[in-house]
Amino acid sequence: MTNAPAIETHGLVKSYGRVEAVRALNLCVEPNCITAFLGCNGAGKSTTIKMLLGMIAPSAGEGTVLGKRIGDPNESREARGKISYVAENKPLYGYMSVEQTIRFAGSFYRDWRDETAKELLYRYGLPLERKVRLLSKGMRTKLALLLAFARRPELLILDEPSEGLDPVGIEELLQTLVGQCAEGTTVFFSSHQIAEVERIADRVCILDKGRLMVDASLDHLRESYRRIDLVFPTTPCEPDFRMNGIESVRGAGCQLSVFASGNVEAVIERAHDLRATSIEVAPVGLRDIFLETVKEN
């Protein structure tokens, strides 16, 4: 089993006229792990995924997926044969029934697993004879996920995979993703649901306005990021705390709130030097890290 990155990009850019949807993206997705791709609407997540899959061409830069160059049509096609992809809008043929859709998809792939498809069909409670156009949003999502999970891909790329699912469906999805990774499949998924990401992701990438702002393991983020609340006898000077590792500093009267990705001890030492009367250090969750990242950018 190779240790080469499942996905790697260097200076990847996608422009639409004067608008840069993706800006100089340097992304590295390690194999055999679950990587979450976070960002607000319009951050460039779906555009990035479409470039990785050869659906749209980059304006500049380069990348590889499963060792195949995304800019080479033949290599990109070869890579796609080893990838299961679920798009954000879950496009399916509306005139087909659920049964026809499953049979149709299964005829394309050498790694299709009939038993797995039958098991998922039962678990998801999909109505075999119903036309796809008559399915609810959640049922369409489940059908799209079945088509992806019934294969044995090297790489799963999922764009907002939990959209339309109820809490039970989301729980099943998360368990399936963990199981797929345990079987050796690399999982790369975009999501707005931070609670889901915190439960299963090994690594987190945060994209904002087309730029990669955070790329770290979830364990590293939990260990490194802190919020430091300070109180002083007089109004403090915010620039005194702007140093390496400090993501934001906000003041209100005699209080300061410092959001740090590192260098916490230096902040505490400086607070003591400036005669702080109260110093409180607290860990932060991924939600706070995400909100601070996109807010500051």
Tell me about this structure.
The chain is of the alpha/beta class. Helices cover 34% and strands 29% of the residues. It is built from ten helices and 15 strands. The strands form three sheets. It has a six-stranded mixed β-sheet, sandwiched between helices.
Helical fraction equals 25-40%
Tell me the strand percentage band.
25-35%
Distance between the amino and carboxyl termini: 38 Å
| Silhouette | elongated
Widest beta sheet: strand line-up:
7-8-9-4-10-11
- Please tell me the overall pLDDT: 93
Class from secondary-structure proportions? alpha/beta
| H/E element order | EEEEHEEHEHHHEHEHEEHEEEHEH
Radius of gyration over C-alpha positions, nearest whole angstrom: 22 Å
Instruction: Please describe the biggest sheet, giving its number of strands, its sense, and whether it closes into a barrel.
Output: 6 strands, mixed
Number of helices: 10
Residue stretches low in confidence (pLDDT < 50, at least 5 long) are: none
Q: How many E strands? A: 15
Write the layout of secondary structure elements.
Elements: E1 7-16, E2 19-25, E3 28-29, E4 34-38, H1 45-52, E5 60-65, E6 68-69, H2 73-80, E7 83-86, H3 98-106, H4 114-124, H5 137-149, E8 155-159, H6 167-182, E9 186-191, H7 194-200, E10 203-208, E11 211-217, H8 218-224, E12 226-231, E13 246-252, E14 255-260, H9 264-273, E15 278-283, H10 286-296
Parallel strand pairs: 4-9, 4-10, 7-8, 8-9
Antiparallel strand pairs: 1-2, 1-3, 1-5, 5-6, 10-11, 12-14, 12-15, 13-14
Please provide a brief summary of the model.
The protein is an alpha/beta fold and 297 residues long. The protein contains ten helices and 15 strands. It has helices at 45-52, 73-80, 98-106, 114-124, 137-149, 167-182, 194-200, 218-224, 264-273, 286-296, and strands at residues 7-16, 19-25, 28-29, 34-38, 60-65, 68-69, 83-86, 155-159, 186-191, 203-208, 211-217, 226-231, 246-252, 255-260, 278-283.
